[in-house]
Structures are given as structure tokens and as C-alpha cells.
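> call design_seq(struct)
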């Protein structure tokens, strides 16, 4: 949303100064007009208000940038990992845990010596290494440096308050629901034939008997489709474990998997709450540790994925950023959906009209 506003900065003399503002409509309505969220795109010095097409001289550089954004901006490969970390698949970016490379893939097994690696990485050391990366003067030198230190430079490190370890939160949506929930059900229970195709039909039948309030969300209806639990979204995994899983899965699971199920359901019910208590967060953390140990002991080291490891950091992220709903990615996913729907000619015209209407000079 753009707006051109004129005001008189001086007393006793007529001198009009203009400002072109932008508000980010992606922000909630109660946030987008806060001072810290408003953008000043241009200043028009005056002393007189510009008229008609003269405004174009001021709009041109702004439009150049908007056009660039509309086309999309590709960052240099260096910034694919925006905070300068190497892929988390080979090394956790919050603690000292390094992935094991076994059977041609990485795993994060090895809970026995947790006290040795469950230690926060050192931010100061990271920043020092990042500066070292900047001093490398060739691609080969930079590659060698990354292999040794696991660190690259990121422009974000120019922010004086930025902590490259603490400020990287784990997204609970990807970690818990698209990561662990999906992994446990599909890769362990379905692939290991604990939940067979005919069992999936029974589970679906049981779920269809549930009568839940309308605002809880759609009942997942694809349990028996495809390879099982087909195309479940993160939200459907959340709903499944919070409402349906215990009743519909209980009689189909052996003892050890019942242990995984009860712990994960409890974890989900604690972590999705709007209010979290530190003692309950502590319980959730302990249960996550137990789940990782149970899976490692019963299904092997290969089954300990990055997400299972990262879930061990959710507790400390919640301490820094608040309840999980306050920093999970569901909100961004909703924006993706909205933006996708806007890409129709009708909506683009609507957006253009909205922008033009917010610039008084364009209303002839
Ligand atoms: Zn870690």
C-alpha cells in the first residue's frame, strides 16, 4: 500500500514537503501501521507540491525496485542458507551434534552420550569463522574453509544484535508434523507393515465415527488412500494426533509403538497450546528424548532423522520465542496460499486499483 503525503515542516513560511510511504499489507492490520513497520520510499523536498506527471520522477526509482521484486530475486548460492550455516543434514546448527554417515545416508543416532553433544554452539566462534570465510580469496579456499569449519559468511551477521545460533528457531510445523508425525506413521508403521492396508481401512472407519466441533477442522479422509495417509497436510497431521490417533490406532499397535504413540500425543497436546507452562514443556522435552531412544533401540540408528534430533531443541526455542504457535510456519503457509490465489487477472486488477487508490495524485 503506497501513500503520498504532504506536510509543512517549517513555521512562518509555506514550504511543502512530501513523503512516499509504503505499508506492508502482509502484516496483520493491527501491526502494519506501526511506525517500525512503515517504509519511507521517498522524500519530495518541495517547496511546492509536484503536479501531474512530475510525480513520475519520484516514482520511477521506486517502481524499478517493485518491478525487480515482482520478477523475483535470486540470491547468490552463498545465501541459500541465509544465516551462513552448512546443511543441517550433516551437522546440527544449534548444538555440537554431528550426523553419522552410515548405510550411505546421514542419521542423528547416538543418544547414549547426549550430555557430550547437547551443548549450544558458540556464537562468538561462529562469527569469527564467518569473518575468516570472508577473508578467503578464491572459491577453492572458501570451499576448503567451509569443510573445516562448517561456516559461511551471511549478511545477517552485519546486524549488531544477530545471534547466528540462538536466533535460528526450529519450525515446529515442519519438525513435529511434516517431520516426526509423518515419519513415525508412514516410514515406521506403514513401511514396516505394522499398519497394513486392511488396518488403514479400519482406522478410516473408526475416524469417520468421530463427531467433532466444526471449528476443529476437516476430518482427514485419506488414511486408506495410496500408500496410506496420502497427502496429509501439516495441519491434518496436527489434528490427527491431537484428536484421532489414540482411539483409532491403539488396538492396531504393538506395545513398543503404543509407547511412541502415547508419548507423541502427549507432546502434541502440550506443544500446540496457546499457553505453555515450563513444567509441561519440560515433560514434552523428556518425552521427545524417550521417543528418540525408543525408535533408535527398536528400529535402528538409520531411523533417527534430523527432525527427530531438532525436536530436542524445541524447548529452548520456546524459552526464547514463546509458545510454539507464536513462531511456527503455519502463518507463512497461509500467506503462500493467499498469494497463490491472487495470481489471477481479476485479483491483479483489484490489487492495482488498491495501490492506485492509495496515491491521491493518481485520482484525477
Ligand atoms: Zn542439535
Amino acid at each position: 500500500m503506497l501513500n503520498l503525503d504532504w506536510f509543512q515542516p517549517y513555521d512562518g513560511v509555506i514550504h511543502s514537503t512530501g513523503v512516499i510511504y509504503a505499508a506492508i499489507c502482509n502484516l496483520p492490520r493491527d501491526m502494519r501501521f506501526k511506525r517500525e513497520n512503515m517504509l519511507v520510499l521517498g522524500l519530495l523536498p518541495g517547496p511546492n507540491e509536484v503536479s501531474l506527471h512530475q510525480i513520475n520522477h519520484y516514482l520511477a526509482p521506486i517502481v524499478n525496485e517493485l518491478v525487480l521484486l515482482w520478477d523475483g530475486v535470486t540470491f547468490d548460492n552463498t545465501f541459500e542458507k541465509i544465516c551462513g550455516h552448512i546443511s543441517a543434514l550433516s551437522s546440527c546448527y544449534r548444538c555440537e551434534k554431528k550426523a553419522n554417515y552410515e548405510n550411505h545416508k546421514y542419521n542423528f543416532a547416538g543418544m547414549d552420550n547426549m550430555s557430550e553433544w547437547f551443548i549450544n554452539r558458540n556464537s562468538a566462534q561462529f562469527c569469527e569463522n564467518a569473518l575468516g570465510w570472508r577473508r578467503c580469496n578464491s572459491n577453492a579456499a572458501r570451499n576448503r574453509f567451509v569443510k573445516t569449519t562448517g561456516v559461511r559468511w551471511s549478511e545477517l551477521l552485519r546486524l549488531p544484535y544477530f545471534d547466528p545460533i540462538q536466533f535460528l528457531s526450529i519450525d515446529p510445523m515442519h519438525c513435529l508434523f511434516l517431520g516426526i508425525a509423518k515419519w513415525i506413521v508412514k516410514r515406521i508403521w506403514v513401511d514396516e507393515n505394522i499398519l497394513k492396508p486392511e488396518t488403514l481401512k479400519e482406522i478410516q472407519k473408526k475416524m469417520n465415527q468421530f463427531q467433532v466441533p466444526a471449528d476443529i477442522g476437516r476430518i482427514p479422509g485419506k488414511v486408506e488412500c495410496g500408500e496410506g495417509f496420502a497427502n496429509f497436510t501439516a495441519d491434518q497431521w496436527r489434528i490427527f494426533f491431537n484428536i484421532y490417533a489414540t482411539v483409532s490406532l491403539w488396538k492396531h499397535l504393538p506395545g513398543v509403538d503404543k509407547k511412541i504413540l502415547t508419548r507423541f500425543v502427549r507432546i502434541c497436546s502440550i506443544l500446540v497450546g496457546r499457553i505453555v507452562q515450563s513444567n509441561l514443556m519440560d515433560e514434552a522435552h523428556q518425552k521427545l528424548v524417550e521417543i528418540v531412544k525408543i525408535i533408535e533401540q527398536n528400529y535402528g540408528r538409520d531411523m533417527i532423522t534430523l527432525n527427530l534430533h531438532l525436536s530436542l531443541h524445541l524447548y529452548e526455542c520456546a524459552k526464547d520465542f514463546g509458545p510454539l504457535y507464536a513462531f511456527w510456519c503455519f502463518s507463512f503457509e497461509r500467506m503462500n496460499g493467499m498469494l497463490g490465489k491472487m495470481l489471477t487477472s481479476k485479483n491483479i486488477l483489484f490489487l492495482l486499483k488498491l495501490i492506485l487508490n492509495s496515491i491521491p495524485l493518481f485520482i484525477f
